[in-house]
Amino acid sequence: MTRVMKRDGYDPPTVAEIVSAQDETDSLRLLLAQRRFYSRAKRWAVARYSGLGGIALLAPIVTAISSDLAVVAGAAAAVIFVLGRTLFLAMERRASAKGAVVQEMFDMSVFGMPAVSAREVRVGPEQIARIVGNPKAAERAIRKMKLAGWYPLDSRLDGGDATAIAQRANAAYSQRLLALNAAIWLWIMVAWTAVAVALSIIFGFTLTVALLSVALPVLPPLSDAFDELRRVHDAGKERSALAEEIEDTLNDPAIEHVDGDRLLTWQGQLFRLRRDAPQVPNLVYWVVRDVNERVMSEAARKLAEDVIKKGRAAK
User: Fold this and answer.
1) Total domain count for the chain?
2) For residue 204, what is the DSSP state?
3) Residues 108-137: pLDDT tens digits?
4) Domain range for residue 19?
5) pTM (2 decimals)?
6) How far is it, in rounded angstroms, from Cα 262 to Cα 267?
7) How far is residue 197 CA from its own chain's centroid?
């Protein structure tokens, strides 16, 4: 589909063009690629969580069976902590950044946005072809994941307003999911810390044994849990601020339609939020997916109705 650009800047396409563009084969392949890059990032995140959580869980129990194993438990905790904070975290963030870049490529194509400055992580067509795989298998995966009709759009809207509503949905969607995942991880680690301390008291661990088998294995994942909760909280404030700014702009009676410059600014903010967001395990994602999507769709529908009413009132 050919995009029409203003000579002096970005001109959003019509809703019909967006609807058509998002279901083109190349667009759907981009969505499949971003899902798979994010899944790869989640696997590294799960490996990091599992390593830290596993050693925190096993070390006090193993030491309770034999205090001679305290040194082994402490050494294993140190190795896993270093691997988690270096290799696993680096691989997770790299895959997550690629997922964010591909999602940005999808948005730029669908919303007809001009090319932006080079990202720190590049994803070429060869990488997309490799991760998408065989075309027929990719088509089956696209159908199974229900990737068609990615953005629910109201045909009565102006293209710029529809794009803004889609951007707001993107900003608001992940926050509940991120907060739930961070809270689960934190409460698991707080509860197990209490159990581990209780075990050390019950079995009369010496100070050295307690430090090696309880403090050294348990404190890193507990610290990670608090750090992730802080990251989610900070990102949540940014997401909320962006969603509120978009909503206020759409509801402003002085603004007939959202202009291209605003949309490009918001898109840049969205990319950064996606790139830096912690990864949520698929198990948590699937548990709340239906509720999240229903809430997102209802909010988008309500905002679209408000924008349409505002336009009628202005006339």
Assistant:
1) 1
2) T
3) 999 999 876 556 778 999 999 999 999 999
4) 15-144+158-314
5) 0.81
6) 9
7) 34
